[in-house]
Amino acid sequence: MAKRIDVGGLTAYYGSHKAIEDISMTVEPRSVTAFIGPSGCGKSTFLRTLNRMHEVTPGGRVEGKVLLDDEDLYGAGVDPVTVRRTVGMVFQRPNPFPTMSIFDNVAAGLRLNGSYRKSRLAEIVEKSLRGANLWNEVKDRLNKPGSGLSGGQQQRLCIARAIAVEPDVLLMDEPCSALDPISTLAIEDLIGELKERFTIVIVTHNMQQAARVSDRTAFFNLAAVGKPGRLIEIDETERIFSNPSVQATEDYISGRFG
Amino acid sequence: MASTTSPLDSPPAPPAPPGRPRSTGRVGDKIFIGLSRGSGILLLVIMASIAVFLSYRAVLAISKDEGNFLTTLDWNPAGDPPVFGIAVLLFGTVVSSVIAMVIAVPVAVGIALFISHYAPRKLAAPLGYVIDLLAAVPSIVYGIWGALVLVPYLEGLNLWLDQFFGWTYVFEKTEVGIARSLFTVGILLAIMILPIVTSVSREVFLQVPKTNEEAALALGATRWEVVRLSVLPFGRSGIISASMLGLGRALGETMAVATVLSPSFLISLHVLNPGGGTFAQNIAAKFGEADEFGRDALIASGLVLFVLTLLVNGAARLIIARRKEYSGATA
Amino acid sequence: MSNATTTDVQDDRPRTAPKPPGTGLSSRSLPRWAPLGFAAVALALGVGTGLAAGWHSRTQWGLIAALLFLVISYVVTTAVENRRQAKDRLATSVVWVCFLVAVVPLASLLWTTVSRGAARLDGYFLTHSMAGVLGSEDTGGVYHALIGTLEQVGIATVISAPLGLLTAVYLVEYGKGALAKAVTFFVDVMTGIPSIVAGLFILSIMLMAKIEPSGLMGALALTILMVPVVVRSTEEMLKLVPNELREASLALGIPKWRTILKVVLPTAIGGITTGVMLAIARIAGETAPIILLVFGSQLINTNPFEGAQSSLPFYIYEQYKVGEAASYDRAWAAALVLIAFVMILNLAARGIARWKAPRR
């Protein structure tokens, strides 16, 4: 079930270094929100605060609120493990578990969260692989290692693994940056399909990609070198790319800097 | 780990030097290649002569052995007729090493995980350091510590094991006497190989790609599940090679066994009873009083130990090579 | 590793037990001091059981307490939280117990050596031999053994370092084909040779050539143990030298051998030195070959090429075997000297590695 994300006054640190400062925004359910901005502006850091992966990094900590349908991810008594199960993530480089077969990769999250009958497990795995547009390519070799697939297939395998546990939100951290154009296209098509079921947030360096796949776009930038990253504006993608309200956004999009 | 590197991993040879090399170039290169290749060949010659010389002296001894070299339960090369066999030594070596492995490997993997994934960060780095230093403590020091400190300490444990687990036969203590037994030797060997097994395993655990661990975390895995899903599968071949390295040390360990064990030429599965012997211990203990023939007999037993450690190391290498093939675990 | 912090947050975050209605993210959980509490209870029960049953060995008390700790934390966590959390906590506990179980003997080893060794260790001990000293007498020293160790290890190093270095250069810079493969394989094999077997090999030569025991023979056996270690570590270091450096030098028209001597080796020299020093530390403690080949002596013999010598590890073994209180003291003191020697080498080697590392 897709959920809404409300971020209020979020600041994230690496030790004493402030990476992003005072970010507030709303992410609508069943939509694709793209984060764009120059390198090092904190968009990936911000993305990782949305499922508490930020605190995995040594010294990583967060101030502020992230509400998932009115419940604070950082509230007292909230278990980060549960948060990450609810908010799935796809990484920059495809990272299937190298020692597991394709089937086991997709089933990994399910097996963590309870015991399923074999037939039920097979059902969900098939559904997830179909959902990731990978089923037809791998259905004959489900027991082969996932690391034997091509880069694009591996990334779709990782998407299948993430959606198998039916998360509410799917975060994607530059999911196509390590892929060739054809695989990229396949993933972009897939994102269009997945937004029917999930709330999707995607970080991308590729502005055409942001324009193609997202409904809303958020532009991040550094106030100055050495200062923390900030959210400059967030709006309908169409508006951001045709008529942004902030000059810096227009400069970035038209390629005048960054 | 040392075992997996091969010259084929080295980067492709750089392009040949451009034409018209300085006159010293060609000659210098030839000398240098000659020297370095010569060193490699010399190592091969040494290895070959180890095998040849040991075998030659061993054959001299075994041909005059009136007992069966493999099955005789006695070591009396000075007797008339000379009778000696390695059955007791093989048994003692294997049993003490197996005890050591059973204790050391799980504990070492636990400590390695503790350092790489569980310990507070401030503690982790110095701990790794201390473990590396402990790996360098000479075995004779472990030996006197084992004999003078550990043995008295284990007396209570031995009685207790006998009391509660005596029914297992293995832990039945049928002879009175202090704990200079194969079991104590096994524990001491376990303590000795703990640092090396830990240190190699930790090295491997630290190499687990971060993306792998994050994949598990992002699925909502607890810390233990991260370890189970990404760290242990990735580190499995490393754990195996670390264990084999430890086993190799345990099999050939001389001083720690020589100081702790009270030797007797007996085969007994009652591991708490004092007695038994190992190849290395027997060589160190019998060497002083042996004449030339006696020394050849000891060399023959050393040859068996040599082959045993070769087999263990070879097996380890095979396991690792095969794992690599189908796990696709590339870092 | 990253996880240390994460998991601190995961496990130790104070949590409010009742979960707010209508939400799925919070769950019931134990307070952060729970593991400490379990440990205290387990320890009390362990000691109690031990006292009640009248076991005098504290090893058992500790083992019982450790076992109880695991059981209690698993059961309580299963009851209050859930199975997954319980497994996670069990794993954490097991890992902590492993660590503690291992620390005890290793700490005891170091403590015993230092405390008992320091009692006897002084200037006299370092500067006198055992000439004319009876086992039960409270005098004598380790001077002759120190000399033996330094000479034997010195000779072994002088042979092993160039041999190992050149072999590693061959494997990394020139090695191709069957010969290199064979050398790599047999270097691995040599790494696994027990020290006593290396000793027996030299012994078999001595028996055939009718050579008498001497420090040199021991040094040769130590060489067999040292060379593969040097080859391995040097190989690793040479592989770390970026290929661009070699190409840059070769592109300047510098012949390969000069490239290796002037560019590759200097770049890796820090790591190579570290490797050699660690190898020295390793062989300095070897006893078995010395028993077979150097024979041991109570007297000062500064000539490693003729006559029996002693060495530190041999001295320790010898004094242990005498079995008198005074000789045990000497054994511990010598052990302290040996450990100090090895540790200083180790620390210095690591210091060099750290000092050279950023510039690599």
UniProtKB/TrEMBL annotation, chain A:
Protein keywords? ATP-binding, Nucleotide-binding, Translocase, Transport
Tell me which residues make up the ABC transporter domain: 5-247
CDD domains registered for this protein in UniProt? ABC_PstB_phosphate_transporter
Which Gene Ontology molecular function entries are recorded, alphabetically? ATP binding; ATP hydrolysis activity; phosphate transmembrane transporter activity
Q: What's any GO biological process attached to this entry?
A: phosphate ion transmembrane transport
Q: Which InterPro entries match?
A: AAA+_ATPase, ABC_transporter-like_ATP-bd, ABC_transporter-like_CS, P-loop_NTPase, PstB-like
**GO cellular component annotations, sorted alphabetically?**
membrane
Q: Write down the NCBIfam families for this protein, in alphabetical order.
A: 3a0107s01c2 (TIGR00972)
What's this protein's name? Phosphate ABC transporter ATP-binding protein
Origin species, per record, is: Streptomyces halstedii
